[in-house]
Amino acid sequence: MSNIGLAVAAILLFSCNSMAQKSNLSVQEFEKAIGQKDIQLLDVRTPGEYQSGHLANAFLADWTNQQEFIWRVTALDNSKPVYVYCLSGGRSDAANRWLHKNGFTAYSLSGGINAWQKENKPLVIDKPVEQMSKEAYLASIPKDKTVLVDFSAQWCPPCKKMEPVLEKLEKDHGLKFTLLKIDGGSQTQLCNALQVDAFPTFILYKQGKPVWRKTGIVEIKDFIDRL
Predict the structure, then answer these.
(1) Tell me: the pLDDT tens digits for 144-155?
(2) Which of 2, 23, 101, 159 would bridge 152 by S-S if both were Cys, CB 3.0 to 4.6 A apart?
(3) Predicted TM-score of the model (pTM)
(4) Record's InterPro entries (predicted)?
(5) Do residue 174 and residue 138 come from a single domain?
(6) Is 156 noted as a catalytic residue in this protein?
(7) Neighbour count for residue 137 (Cβ, 10 Å)
(8) Are residues 109 and 172 in the same domain?
(9) SS3 state at 110
């Protein structure tokens, strides 16, 4: 290889390493960055790890479940930066590389939650909630009304994407229906009983009976047609 070729290769290698370093933030840099507006915070640990303590307002997309990870992350806004963390940094670095390859601007927390806790930074620990039985759930659905049930979770990116759709559905159309929201992230027993294994899941009831079910992103026209 010529001297020019070696120089170009060295520059490219330096650029790649610089990009990797810039996208890997210290605890202080990460904390400052996520305090800004119009950012997206992503926890790529397992649901169990998330429940043991997570950063406030973090979405969840388990890196070890690639199908679920991709499905949730593709609902994020690629015009806004994504700040990623895991337990010690390995999974978030891998997720960070995936995000960059797929058109996102992303940054990962160096050392993960372990480093965050060493700096005595706050974590949110979700409190257990009283579980709703299947019988109580069915009893809460009026038999004389059309009811659309939204099983969602605060940490679910596709659920967040559906919020303005549901708001528009309620405000912009004179449809006679009741929207019932269930926090599927905490009502795990009810989700198991109804075989709701992904969020968001929508179930439409007419005269107290389920007539339609859909999981994932739903176009407003589909709702209108069903209602």
Answers:
(1) 999 999 999 999
(2) 159
(3) 0.86
(4) GlpE_sulfurtransferase, Rhodanese-like_dom, Rhodanese-like_dom_sf, Thioredoxin-like_sf, Thioredoxin_CS, Thioredoxin_domain
(5) yes
(6) yes
(7) 16
(8) no
(9) coil
Rounded Cα gap, residues 191 and 151, in angstroms: 8
Radius of gyration of the chain (CA): 21
Token pair 């659309």: residue = 148
Element (H, E) at 13: helix 3-22
Domain with 89, as residue range(s), is: 3-118
Q: Which residue has the tokens 């202080």?
A: 28
Q: How far is CA 156 from CA 16, 72, 112, in A?
A: 32, 7, 20
The three-class DSSP label of residue 148 is strand
* Residue 184 near residue 151 (C-beta atoms within 8 A): yes
Beta strands 106-109 and 24-25 are: parallel
Give tens-digit pLDDT for 19-67.
444 699 999 999 999 999 999 999 999 999 999 999 999 999 999 999 9
Contact 93, 24 (CB under 8 A): yes
Q: Do 150 and 192 sit in the same domain of this protein? A: yes
How many percent of the chain have pLDDT more than 90? 85
